[in-house]
Task: inverse folding
């Protein structure tokens, strides 16, 4: 197939399934899906939650010889563990409380068709063993039955968990993983799709405008850059939610970066903005070594501050204990042994089990942290043209701490 024909076919698929985006990783996933569709090979789609994994099984089914047969999408994580086997493999009447009739299960109903097992990593181990047998032999036994049944079902599975880690922790069968993973597909996270993020925002904004008869919100250039720098932990699902919020709640129809920032969560643990290089020389911590230097520098300062605080607190406690009167036993010695006076001595090695050892305030010189800190100071001063106040602000330390470090490293000349 020529490159032109391949591009034309991909565009046709995108229009049919309302897939927006032109990033290479997404095009690669769609291309592999179209190539594997005519076969019966099982497919495992891996990707973060909210990236749109559910579209790919539909593409595979609709472009396969099974397209006129039934297609079922099953969320394995939403079915209770006690009924998952019955839902998938069926049951006979009376096999459990509430089983008032025979049920063929999805594998019986979807014979000759396709089953999409979403969140397959959530399946119980016992169910995984049953699924493995179906994949290997096409045979299964309904719950409560003794007769083996046959089925011809194409399996497409998806998961957002780290399957290899689940295998190492004993939560997922390795043999089932290799059986499902005949054709692996990796859906790219939204943060890696570049300008696709802006295209998706435009689509969701247009849908909101048409549905609720309102003016469409439009991003200015700064807002577009902010949108593409955000990490999008919730991926496409989160982007759609935020677009809908802006469409309804924002009085401005032209969205600036300032307006957009009010709708993007600022949780630094999960949704912080990714660093981006600004043309014109503005500093960016994209360089990994500089990031490491900054982290180590701040960590060292935090640890030293904590040591001083703990040492001061320990000294206060010892002073309070030393000021207390010696306890006296008010009872006759024949009833209870006299209490021992409180001793303010340093803990011995035998006491180390119950007490935390506090290192002296003197700072260690190991791991070459002095060299790293010195390099960070030099780089900060160089970037700020010798302005100590700005260098201290960049490093996240006080002016006083900066001056002390400069003197310590002989940089105060």
Result:
């Amino acid at each position: 197939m020529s490159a032109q024909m391949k591009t034309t076919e991909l565009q046709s698929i995108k229009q049919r399934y309302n897939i927006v985006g032109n990033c290479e990783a997404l095009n690669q996933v769609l291309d592999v899906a179209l190539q594997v569709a005519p076969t019966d090979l099982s497919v495992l789609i891996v990707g973060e939650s909210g990236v749109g994994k559910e579209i790919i099984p539909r593409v595979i089914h609709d472009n396969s010889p099974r397209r006129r047969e039934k297609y079922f999408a099953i969320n394995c994580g939403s079915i209770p563990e006690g009924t998952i086997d019955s839902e998938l493999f069926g049951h006979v009447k009376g096999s459990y409380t509430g089983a008032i009739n025979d049920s063929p299960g999805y594998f019986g109903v979807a014979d000759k068709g396709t089953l999409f097992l979403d969140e397959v990593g959530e399946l119980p181990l016992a169910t995984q063993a049953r699924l493995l047998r179906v994949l290997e032999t096409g045979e299964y036994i309904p719950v409560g039955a003794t007769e083996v049944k046959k089925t011809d079902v194409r399996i497409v599975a998806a998961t957002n968990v780290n399957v290899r880690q689940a295998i190492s922790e004993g939560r997922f069968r390795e043999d089932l993983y290799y059986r499902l993973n005949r054709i692996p597909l990796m859906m790219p996270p939204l943060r890696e799709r570049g300008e696709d993020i802006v295209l998706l925002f435009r689509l969701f904004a247009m849908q909101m405008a048409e549905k609720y008869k309102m003016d469409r919100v439009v991003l200015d250039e700064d807002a577009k850059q902010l949108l593409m720098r955000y990490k999008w932990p919730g991926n496409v699902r989160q982007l759609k939610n935020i677009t809908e919020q802006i469409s309804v709640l924002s009085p401005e129809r032209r969205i600036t970066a300032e307006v957009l920032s009010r709708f993007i969560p600022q949780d630094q643990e999960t949704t912080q903005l990714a660093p981006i290089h600004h043309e014109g020389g503005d500093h960016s911590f994209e360089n990994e070594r500089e990031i490491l230097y900054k982290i180590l520098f701040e960590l060292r300062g935090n640890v030293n501050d904590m040591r001083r605080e703990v040492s001061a607190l320990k000294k206060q406690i010892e002073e309070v204990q030393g000021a207390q009167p010696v306890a006296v036993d008010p009872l006759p010695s024949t009833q209870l042994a006299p209490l021992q006076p409180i001793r303010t001595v340093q803990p011995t090695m035998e006491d180390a089990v119950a007490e935390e050892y506090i290192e002296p305030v003197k700072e260690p010189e190991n791991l070459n942290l002095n060299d790293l800190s010195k390099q960070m100071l030099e780089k900060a001063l160089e970037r700020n043209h010798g302005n100590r106040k700005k260098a201290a602000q960049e490093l996240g330390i006080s002016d006083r701490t900066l001056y002390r470090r400069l003197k310590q490293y002989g940089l105060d000349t």
Observations:
- Residues 13 and 20 are 10 Å apart (CA to CA).
